[in-house]
Amino acid sequence: MTDIDNRKKPYPEQPSGKIEIKTLSSIEALKEHASFWNSLVEKSEKMTPMMSAAWVISYFEHRLQPDDSWICQIAFDGPTLVGLIPVVIRPVTILGVKTVKLIIPYRTDAIAQPGRENQIIPLLFNSVQKLFPKNCGIEMRGLREYFPSVAIYRSSAIAGKKVFLPAGRGLFFDCNQPLANYQSRFSDNFSKNLIRINRKLEKYADREFKFIQRSDINDTDFDKFAAIETSGWKGQHGDSISNDPNRVNYYRALTNRLAHLGWLQWHFLEIDGQAVATQMAVKKGDTLVVEKNGYNEKFKKLSPGTLLFEQMVHRGFEDKMTGTIDCQSDFEWMNKWQMDHYQYFDLFIYPKKLWPLLTRYYPRLLKSLFQSGPGQQR
Asked: Structurally, how many domains does the chain consist of?
């Protein structure tokens, strides 16, 4: 069985209620549990692809800082995996005192068998805190407001002093309603611009939208995607995947794993045989997640990225197997599409000890007052 196997395995029919927590710290050990881990994420509507073994293992392999290490606390009910939390351990020195900061990977979260979150997630967190009693805090960025875990973090079930901070929005289309409901909210200028750029596209006899998934994906799709992304403003500013060898290795490993799961999609707009816009998307259940995009600057006046995005939206609303198109962010260009939104939060949990409270908790709380309003503390 490979680390990206996705065969389904049932939960125990009679949960024992006796949860055992194990600490794993090697990639090979994680791969042994990847099959059920991915399946657990796939079956839950509220778990995102970023919580999957495919994502977390790739992150641990390629995105850590030189001094980082990691563990994964895994909860078992008998032989069955029922929850886990991935943790990055980062050494820090605060006012001359050496300690560690514990980081949950960005937009990831503790996961648990649906319906057992209140039982399993506190056990996972408590086990982490026992392993690192002198930590200076646990950092979780990019929690979505609808995650079942958020209510648990706000409660006394998780020990420590907490600061919740608003961290932006994610935009999405609800494909269970008519697309016209969104189009009716478009500005006149945006609606006219969509008509204008589509007419410009029609002047090209050789034009094609390609949506590649499952068995049609091949190794060259990643290279084509990366080349388009780096040809635009991301490449010019050093933010493209190709600008960083570690990012290349990370996304290549990630997309290989996602493709094996059947979740990965590559979207392209080609003109005269040349790809001029691209998207990397992930389809988990009935949710299509837009992860990355880019376009060729030479075709900027045609707005190829907008044309490809529009085509993807139309396909999503026409596909009965798609219930949500999740854009994850709220970039300025996305706001023109008048999508619905959800809230992100950053959460910081500090031990109730003098040193982390004085050097981390209170400074964070004070800083929050100068951001987008007072942080919510517990």
From this structure: 2
